[in-house]
Amino acid sequence: MNLKSLIVDDEIHIVKNLQAVLPWKEMGYMTVETAVNGQEALDIVTQHGEVDLILCDIKMPVMDGLTFINQLRGQNDTCEIILLTGFQEFSYAQKAIEYRVREYILKPIDYLKLEDTIYRLTKQIKHQKQSKMTQKKMDSIADLAYEKVFYDVIMNYSSAQTYTLNLNEDKNELQSKQFYLILIHIEEYFKKSMEWSQNEKKLWNFAVKNVLHEKLVYFVDRSTVLQTRDGEWCVILERDSNTFHKNNINEMMEHLEETVLKYLKFKINTVHWEKPITMTLLSDTYQKLQAIIVLSSNKAYAPKEASANSTSHFSMWNVVKELITGLKQSDRNKVEAGLDHLIKEINRITEHSYQTAQQVLHFMILHFIREMNELGIIDAEEEQRFWNMLKHSSSVNDLLQAINDLVYFCLDKISSKKSSDVLMISAGDYIQHHISSDLSIDELSDYLKISPSYFSLLFKQHFHMTFVEYVTKQRLDLAKSLLIMTENSITKIGKMIGYAERRYFTKVFQKYEGLSPSEYRLKFSEVKDGLNSR
């Protein structure tokens, strides 16, 4: 554990003695800063961050020691302070106690006594920092664990019963809770994202998620925001939240829509399930909300489950899942069965509403294009071709033909790929959806049902780099965009891309980019300012 100390004294010979005589490195202090007055010391703390231990004189020019300590406590409430002074007035000692100074040592300095004092305080400092780091790590793990649990359950990767959290609450307590589920979608996301690069897509999706997070804290104590797909997010709210009530949902969704529109210029559609649900119903409810947000013109509340139309819509959604699963598995029989099922369902919907049948098919084509693009099955040129085809398909028969052509085109492309390529496409898709998590080879190989060694071999052959190199590159590409285009702190950006500790994020970033994150941001800021001044 690397500690930092600061010596503040205008008597240069005392400063040099303190630097030379005390065994700083042996005690764990890798950095020993010095200042000749309180103002200089305050500047050092402001510019270079937290200091663990301060040795400070009282009487100094410009700013005395007690004034410095008083101002310091406004921005650093944890560092330990030892006063070194030749003044013995009781009033100084009283002030020192008021500013939470731990020791008061008189000059001339007894260096053996001072060393013993520093050793004792350092032991306490290390214990406090370790406790803080442990708590911070546990909080981070808890947040990531919650997100992973909810994401896996909503996307139906795992059932709610499979999870046991070794956190503050056990599995039964988590499963017994009730949640409100909100689905959010960027209106006309497909059209907007057509011109974006992959990095731009990542940036905008992260930006929306952050805006949602920051706005939700005004309404609820705790919320979970999951990006379920490009341009789509699920918000999960615990029913027993102290400040949250069901009646707040409409107001909250209006504020979310207004905030995203104001800051990001995106119009979002929101829909929520009107009843609280248990964890086991999250996946099913999420799929129903997806159908509702497309087919029900952005209703604030989900229709009753007994509704005949909604039942038909949800049955239609199962056809969508059936076809996509068949494509991902390269199972021609399953795909053909899905298309047959699709025709039957469309005929049933057409009997009630021709317009609804058009809506369903239009959305299904968009949905397939997005799924196949995310998996790397169709490229940008092919995506554009299908998009143009969709614009010229208006009747139900035209749309059925379009979706038939799209499905078989994708099936042929997937079938032509080696099984190893399909596995790695799935691996790349998983990484993109879990980039802020603590990804590992064991996790990916378990997800793909292959051995870790075989996964590593296939990954290197397919991506031409190791798993760690690939994940690092994806994270740093996103970090660079966030540094240039947002004002988020370095710590926050690090957490957003999967690095819980700022120091480690900075180390990795500097290793690959040759600049620290702050220097990288400053470099582009100067370029932008230069362009703006022309």
UniProtKB/TrEMBL annotation:
SUPFAM superfamilies: CheY-like, Homeodomain-like. Residues 425-523 form the HTH araC/xylS-type domain. InterPro entries: CheY-like_superfamily (IPR011006), Homeodomain-like_sf (IPR009057), HTH_AraC (IPR018060), Sig_transdc_resp-reg_receiver (IPR001789), Tscrpt_reg_AraC-type_HTH (IPR020449). The keyword tRNA-binding does not apply. This is Response regulator. The modification 4-aspartylphosphate is found at D57. It comes from the Bacteria. SMART domains: HTH_ARAC, REC. The keyword Nucleus does not apply. Residues 4-122 form the Response regulatory domain. The lineage of its organism: Bacteria, Bacillati, Bacillota, Bacilli, Bacillales. It comes from Chengkuizengella axinellae. Keywords: DNA-binding, Phosphoprotein, Transcription, Transcription regulation.
